[in-house]
Amino acid sequence: MADTEGCADREAGPSGGLALRVSGLTVRSPRGRVLLSLPSLELPGGTLLGVRGPSGAGKSTLLHALAGLSAVAEGTVRWGDTDLSRLDAEGRARFRADQIGMIFQDFLLFDELSAQDNAALPALFRPRAERAGLRARAAARLVGLGLSDTARSVASYSGGERQRVAIARALAAGAPVLLADEPTASLDRAAADRLIADLTGMARAAGTTLVAVSHDERLIARMDRVLTLADGAPVTGAQAA
Ligand SMILES: Nc1ncnc2c1ncn2[C@@H]1O[C@H](COP(=O)(O)OP(=O)(O)OP(=O)(O)O)[C@@H](O)[C@H]1O
């Protein structure tokens, strides 16, 4: 594990994880308060980045900016060759659908659907020819993450099982970028440890660029690089320890 400075530059991981270049990023509240100020962040494709910091430090704000969920009004956020600051909301949504898998805290699962159908949901937005392959990958990810009886509605799943379905869905889509917000929240220690091993193992095997916000130091310790935020800005060197 190293801090974010001094990364060698590489455009893409083994299977195309996108490189990230953030420059002069400032995110403000609707009233103009600076919520996040990130002068520079560069990650080679396929890097696993952990983002930590106290509550209110700006971690979720960063994740939203990286996902293109908010407009990039000041600075640039570049994934590979795509500069999110040059895209409108529709362009960012299209980029997100194609390139970014998201594991967010509310999981965004549909209770009326089975685990299988939730995990295979991205197939709905793919060309017909790709759908069967994605469904097969979703089924394999669910098994790989230790879930069985996946024809059952996720309404009856535990919090940890729902988290696994959300991860299976994000991984099955094969996106080159994975963004995770507190992926081990609501899990007990043993389940969290298993999830950390699965998530990092699968991301590394696929060459995915993973950015995970977490208070869980065991997850942070498994990442390649760590960004510590406080009061909406990066904390460097000894301050971050
Ligand atoms: N739309 C908004 N308007 C005003 N303030 C906001 C807005 N969104 C976020 N904030 C503030 O920005 C700061 C950073 O919030 P953020 O959710 O990014 O923190 P965090 O580090 O993810 O915290 P936590 O660990 O508690 O989830 C907080 O003080 C929050 O209240």
From TrEMBL:
GO terms for molecular function: ATP binding; ATP hydrolysis activity; transmembrane transporter activity. Keywords: ATP-binding, Nucleotide-binding. Residues 20-240 form the ABC transporter domain. GO terms for cellular component: plasma membrane. It comes from the Bacteria. SUPFAM superfamilies: P-loop containing nucleoside triphosphate hydrolases. This is ABC transporter ATP-binding protein. It comes from Meridianimarinicoccus roseus. The lineage of its organism: Bacteria, Pseudomonadati, Pseudomonadota, Alphaproteobacteria, Rhodobacterales.
